[in-house]
Amino acid sequence: MNNTIFILGVGAFFLMMIGLYGVLTNRNVFRLILGLGLMETGVNLFIVGASYWKGGKPPILGTVFETKAVDSYADPVPQALVLTSIVIGLGVTALALALMVRLKETTKSIDIIETKEEEVNE
Amino acid sequence: MNKIAAIFLIGLISAGALGVYISNLPGKKPFKRNGHNDISRAYMTKTANGGKRNVIKKGDRKLENSSSNIVTAVVLDYRGFDTLGEVTVLFAAIAGIGLLLGGSRRRRIRPAGPVISSMAPWIAAFIIITSAYIFLHGHLSPGGGFPGGAMIAAGFLIMVLGMGSRAPKIFKTIETFGGLAFITVGVIGFLKKGSFLQNAFGSGEVGTLFGSIFLGILYAIIGFKVAAELSSGFGEFVAEEEGKHE
Amino acid sequence: MKYSIFLIVAPLAAAFTIPMLGTYLPRLSKLIAALMLLAGTALSAWLLTAYKAQTVIVIGGWMPPFGISLHVDLLSLISVTAVYGATLMATLYQLFDGQEKKPYFYMLILLLTAALNGMILTGDLFNLFVFMEIAGISSYALIASGNGAAGVRGALKYMIVASLASVAYLAAIAIIYSTAGSLNMATVASGMRDLNPVVGALVVLLILASVFTEMEIFPFNSWVPSAYQGAPSSVSALLSGAVTVAAAYVALRMSYIVFGQGMGDIIRYGKFNVTNILFWLGVITVITGQAAAYAQADAKKMLALSSVAQMGIILFAISIASDLAIYGIVFAVIAHSLSKLLLFMVTGKFVSASGTSHWAKWKGLGRENPLSGGLFLIGALGILGIPLFAGFWGKFSIIGAAFKAPGVSWIGVYIILAATVVEAVYFFRLAHLLFEEPETKPVSIKSSIWFRISTALLAAAIIGIGVYPAPIDKKVRKIPTELSSKNTEGYISTAYRAMGR
Amino acid sequence: MSAVNILILIITLVMLAGAAAVVTMKSMIGAAIMEGIVSLMAALLFLKMGAPDVAITQAVIGAGLSTALFVMALNRAGIDEKEASDE
Predict the structure, then answer these.
(1) Domain A3-52+74-107 class?
(2) Parent domain of D36
(3) Under an 8 A CB cutoff, do A81 and C173 touch?
(4) Domain assignment of residue D37, yes or no
(5) Residue of C72, C111, C137 to mutate, testing the B interface (most B Cβ within 10 Å of its Cβ)
(6) Nearest CB to D8: which of A8, A89, A98?
(7) Alpha-carbon distances of A19 from A97, C44, C225, rounded to whole Å
(8) Mind telling me how many Å the CA of C263 is from chain A's nearest CA?
């Protein structure tokens, strides 16, 4: 068992769970978005951590590079996935904040649960 | 949901995760690997299409891919279609913001104090030059189009907040041409080599700035597009002048 | 077949032109959106008629386990055609009969189309995630583009549930990549077999949970009523007519190909038989959906919950996993898509004429406007599965398959039949009210020529498939053999042949 | 435990403490800034895991742009801190 990986895995898992707690216990949209952000960060750490092994160096080819030395580099694929996932997270967060601003403009509150039935005007 | 129920649910999930973890210990295949699988090994030795395993170092030529940063090679070349999707995610989010917040009324932005207003263009220029370096060297060193573009947007935001200017319409045109350019690069690959987003520009020397035209073009496109998108989208969030909102 | 890539890329390219055109020539951008969807429908229909055998389309020139590839088979082409047709209808409805919308609205519809097609065609798990996120983001924005606060609330609820789902999906991806060592569906499918059973079951549940969020299956569908109610009618029609098609397709492929282990015993890891979970989730979804729809005073929420129940039936059929069941699923999905498009389009007219979506206030609207009333009735009959209407073949085959299947599937049949009775009650209750003698003269509905043409086409399709299913039947009959993993020409072998090993 | 492990442990603990602060803090702007700190710590962890590309992206997007976006959105919506106490 590798200590580094254990710490990373447990840390990522707890980060996700703290985020989930934030999502479950709040009705305030802003805090919901913050909780989702924590969960996203946690799962990103988890993706890189799940494929990490001790002593993984940045996967950038140096001046001298033997085919055997491949083993000293960290796995590049999860890193590429996480890059994508971070940018997607930014998109979702930005749109969620725009929705929050709209909600505040239309209802004067940022509570996700409606106080009374609202009519649709189409 | 009340707090006790939430804690209970989280406890349940944690217990489940612990159970999975323990049951995995004597499992057939362990969670953790201690080396590369076939796919990541092929990416690193640049033999995904069955080439022979070369000694790869700076200065090697005619490999299937000439990026010395393997993550960039994966993001832009081996999994380039994901990156097109990623650009589209941001594009969709910014379009959504435009649809929701882009009112027809003109909002005036209150400029910051004199010190910040006079400093803002310089700080912005510095950030923009740094980020141009980051996205042009994406295939050599860590960085690339997304952080580079995001930094340009940050520089632009400083300018907006400091000087009170608004996002000009030209950004919309950059968004359009950036997206179309990405697809054009893909279609060129389709027409010349037979599959979408295939590298039709050849690959040069590993580890040089102009060694990889394909990756350079793609990261430049992404950098400009992300910068334009984020600047115009985030501009919508800038608070309007005091007393104007109701 | 190699042109299939343009089913995804062409709408993306059209969407990319809109920020500029929308700023300078807003009218042209709407025209481009409509023309693009028309061209896409034509392209997908052409590919469907030219279809010969399963193909893997390579992207970027990298062979399947290394690069991302598209996997084109008969079912995916049928689904893509359905998605394009549904989007085209909804867009024309919005253009000619809906409220004035900004160019961005049509751009998001194009992005949604591209993303749904990507979800259907892609052969890579992470690529599927990216497309699910694009589809999600464009749907949130489209739902929130309605006037009131209801749309924004619905979009936020959808967003929060879907974001939790995407976190679950990513966690599953992390486990899959670190164990199976690949993200290509075919490689994962062969790698999942020798996985630790507990981990395997966990991965399957995490991924299916996130697919079920889009498919509106029971514990993950709390967002459905408010999102459908708050969205503009054209967007509700899209959610019901296009998004569910893609989601049902993904659920089917996940459970049969990626995680399945041969028909009849589809997902089993050691002691964990995930198939049973699918079965019970499907049945519970049908019961809760129909019960909630019966109690619903809001017509759009009622239709939304009826969609939920239909998806429950489809999940139930997925858990049966016989050739007849797959045949039924395809028919049921097509019939549901057509009927719900028609129902939401007509309902949108009723809402805008009466100014409310509470159906109790629609007394006599159908008597005043017999065309719309009749169309509503046809849509309802199509959903219910009455003989001579499209829904019949789907439900009939699913029920037949359930009776033939071993185990407890027959329980599901009685539940589906009972639920159909409930569904009939609330649809006919509404239809009866529409044709009742009103106290005050109701408003007459103004509709464009496009509304009449497209609804007439939909109604003709519903009745046409119901009366004479032979042309579709000929295609659909081939699907079970293609999906069956016993068949050597199946998905995995096609992908492996493309890999050249 | 080696020195690297202790460093990683400290970063992880700071990150988790920051996350706990995000969830419990009364002030919304404070919570947004704490989220930025969590992102920064995550970026350091990525760097330790041999992923400099991800670390740069996480630092620029997670810690920089997102935090700015949170604060700007609060301003734009005109949300005052009194509403921060929920329920």
Answers:
(1) mainly alpha
(2) 26-77
(3) yes
(4) yes
(5) C137
(6) A8
(7) 17, 42, 26
(8) 32
By the 10 Å C-beta count (0-12 exposed, 13-18 middle, 19+ buried), C2 is classed as middle
Residue that wins the pLDDT comparison between B135 and C384:
C384
B19/chain C closest Cα distance in angstroms: 9
With 80 as the cut, is the pLDDT of residue B7 above it? yes
Look at residue C327 and tell me whether its pLDDT is greater than 80: yes
Structural domain boundaries in chain B: 3-32, 67-235
Nearest C-alpha neighbor of C230 from the set C136, C149, C134, C174: C149
The predicted-structure confidence for C177-211, as pLDDT tens digits, reads as follows 888 888 888 888 877 766 777 788 888 889 999 99
* Domain ranges within chain A, ordered by starting residue: 3-52+74-107
Among the partner residues A29, A85, A122, nearest to C351 by beta-carbon distance? A122
Answer whether C58 touches B (CB < 8 Å). Answer: yes
Mutate to test the interface with A, among D49, D65, D67, D80 (most CBs of A within 10 A): D49
Minimal C-alpha gap between A75 and chain C (Å): 10
CA gap C68, C129 in Å, rounded: 13
- Token pair in block for residue A49: 């951590």
Q: Does B72 touch chain D (CB under 8 A)?
A: yes
What is the C-alpha to C-alpha distance for residues B187 and C140, in angstroms, rounded to an integer? 30
- Interval D30-48: pLDDT, tens: 999 999 999 999 999 999 8
* Contact criterion met (CB < 8 Å) for D76 and B237: yes
On the CB side of B211, how many CA atoms lie within 13 Å of its CA? 23
CA atoms within 13 A on the CB side of A82: 35
Distance CA C99, CA C79 (A): 29
Interface present between D and A (3 or more CB pairs within 8 Å) = yes
Query: Least CB-CB distance to D49: which of A10, A35, A48?
Result: A48
Q: How far apart are CA D28 and CA D85, in angstroms?
A: 9
Q: CB of B195 within 8 A of CB of B121?
A: no
- Residue B82: predicted pLDDT: 92
Strand ranges in C259-303 using DSSP code E only, listed in sequence order: 268-269, 272-273
Cβ of C293 under 8 Å from any chain B Cβ? no
The answer, for A43 touching chain B at a CB cutoff of 8 Å, is: no
Cβ–Cβ contact A120 with C under 8 A: yes
Q: What is the pLDDT of residues C235-265, one digit of tens each?
A: 999 999 999 999 999 998 888 878 776 544 5
User: Which pLDDT score is estimated for A122?
Assistant: 39
Nearest CA in chain B to C144: B100
Rounded CA-CA distance B238/D72 in Å is 6
First to last CA, chain D: 45
* Chain C residues inside the 8 Å CB shell of B218: none
Residue C57 DSSP SS3? strand
pLDDT surpasses 90 at B208: no
Pairwise CB contact (< 8 Å): D56 & B143: yes
* Cβ partners under 8 Å of residue A29, min gap 6: A96, A99, A100, A103, A110, A111, A112, C156
Q: Where are the domains of chain C?
A: 2-495
B186-195 core/surface letters (b: 16 or more CB in 10 A; e: else)? bbbbbeeeeb
C216-227: pLDDT as tens digits: 898 888 889 889
Return the closest-CA partner of residue C126 out of C161, C62, C82, C176: C176
- C281 in Cβ contact with C305 (< 8 Å): no
Dihedral sign from CA coordinates of C483, C498, C2, C215: positive
- Say how many domains are in chain D: 1
Q: Across the interface, do A46 and C144 touch by the CB < 8 Å criterion?
A: no
Contact criterion met (CB < 8 Å) for B143 and D53 = yes
Q: Give the number of beta-carbon pairs within 8 Å between B and D.
A: 51
CB-based contact (8 Å) between A95 and chain C? yes
Q: Is A46 on the interface with D (CB under 8 A)?
A: no
